[in-house]
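Input:
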Amino acid sequence: MQLIDGKALSNKVQANVATKVEQLKQEKNIVPGLAVILIGDDPASHAYVKMKAKACEKVGFYSITHSMPDTISQDEIIATIEMMNNNPRIDGILVQLPLPSHVDTDKILEVIDPKKDVDGFHAYNVGRLVTNLDTFVACTPLGVMKMFEAYDISLKGKDVCVVGASNIVGKPMASLLLNAEATVTITHIHTKDLKAHTSRADIIVVGVGVPKLITEEMVKEGAIVIDIGINRIEDGSLVGDVDFENVSSKCAYITPVPGGVGPMTIAMLLSNTLKSAKGRII
Ligand code: GUN
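Output:
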């Protein structure tokens, strides 16, 4: 069994981004800028946004966080996004999800200029991903692809089971894998027999937010298991969606939680924002 070290890979990607930022500054006088919109006081969202802002600072980006109370109206959120769409210092706009229930998330995401949609959630970019065109791809699944690449894990013809069909993770993950010529099965909450699908997969990618959903008997010997879940359990510790202790010995490769996919999400956000900033000179 080999651990896939997301933290180390993320640091490598971030160092590379920092070098490119320095070059952009020197040669083109461009400083990549990211705007984060944070609504309400969900502690997890606050923690994520803080990590994102810190990472931006580390690589030399300009970044701003617009924090708003959850009583904010949808129109005010839209007005803030439009302001960022028109701000030439901003290359990337990220609206931290989930949004309060009175806000229409789909509508909000569609207001973001697709050229600044570094989260890859806009329907325009999702459509481009599905048709295998160059685009902004959602950071978490993109980070998983980067892991496969870094560890020389080939996908062509592999049976991959993606557990979870969210717009943020499962669906873009499945599209990326299909574009990489894997045979993809997507399972979700209404799937009749999850084990039937996971146990024949060469690769399992799971991101549903259910601690220890994937157990030993659901995994084939020698499989590769990517755990996107991040769950805080009663004792305060963070665990993934995989029963790591019992599953890991069966795997060829497995990602730990924490220190697996999580750090890659931030690295890909920086990488997408840099890509957008480079677009200023085209
Ligand atoms: N909430 C959970 N994951 C994400 C993400 O990748 N981007 C945003 N904007 N919100 C999230």
